[in-house]
Each structure stands twice: as structure tokens, then as C-alpha cells.
Amino acid sequence: MRQGLTMTMAALAMVACGGDDGDGGPTDPNATDGTMTASVSGAAAFAADVVIGSYTNNVLVISAVQGPTGNSRSIVLTVNNVTGTGQFNFTLPGNGAQYIETTGISSASWLTAITQGSGSVTLTTATPTRVVGSFSFTAPALSGGATGTKTVSGQFDIVPSNPN
């Protein structure tokens, strides 16, 4: 539960903070660090509107959101000890993957963790200026009205907001 709360808070902070749009003015609410597409339980229906990526001190966090506030879906990936390309298991300590559906003020969440779920991310490019990869995970219900499991797989291509 603590890991789920940590991932949720990290995702919310990343989405709320956004990134610098480079013009010296206020942060652009539509700014994005890249792309993410995914299928959720077999339906190829996730194309992120906003993707925020952070790759600092060998920790990669990607938060992607599709849909407007109050009717959105999110995917959050967290991977520690990233020093280059390779495959990283979501069930290792500190790693995880989460899928969240929000309707109105209610959210349902599915999460991989050390003792639950399965999955991994494969990084084909992992540099301070670009991270590219694919992921797949099966996560059991964690909170809200979540039931059963969700199987999520997809790919991303990001330029981290704060590179290593």
C-alpha cells in the first residue's frame, strides 16, 4: 500500500508541476515530454495527451495521462537503478507500474509491487536526453472501485524534463 501511495503521489506531483516550455513564461499546461501509447486489457485505446518523464540519479519515472480532468486514465512507471538499456522487472523493490481510472472525484487503481502483479519495462534507448522503450504489466486491484486485474502493455518515447 505504501508503494502505491508513493507512486500515486509522484504521478500527481509530476502532472501538477509539468515542465518548462522554454519561453521563459508560465508553464504550458499542454506541454508534454514525449509520447506513450498502450493497450489496456486487450483494448488498444490509450494514447496519452500528456507525458511527463523524469530520469534523475538513475531513477526513471514516467507519468502519462489521457483524457480531461475528472474523466481520465493514467499510467505510471517507476524504475530504479537505470544505468543504460535493458529489461527491468516491476516487482523489484522500488520499481512499479500503476494504472488509474478517474471518473469525477473517484479513482480506481491497479498496481504491481514486490509481492503482487508482474511485468517489466525494456529500454532500447536510455540517455540523459532520450528514453525509449516498451512495457507490459498485469496488476491487481489496489484501491477505489478497482476490481480484478488489468493487463497493460505499450511503448513510450520521451525527452526527460530533468535528465541525469
Task: Describe this protein's structure.
The chain is mostly beta strands. The chain has one domain. Helices cover 10% and strands 54% of the residues. It contains one helix and eleven strands, in the order H-E-E-E-E-E-E-E-E-E-E-E. Strands 1, 2, 3, 4, 5, 6, 7, 8, 9, 10 and 11 form an eleven-stranded antiparallel beta sheet that branches. It is globular, with a radius of gyration of 15 Å. The two termini are 29 Å apart. The N terminus is likely disordered.
List the helices and strands and how they pair.
Layout (H helix, E strand, L loop, with lengths): L1 H16 L16 E7 L2 E5 L2 E7 L2 E8 L4 E9 L6 E4 L6 E8 L2 E6 L6 E10 L2 E14 L5 E10 L6
Antiparallel strand pairs: 1-2, 1-11, 3-4, 4-5, 5-7, 6-9, 7-8, 8-10, 9-10, 10-11
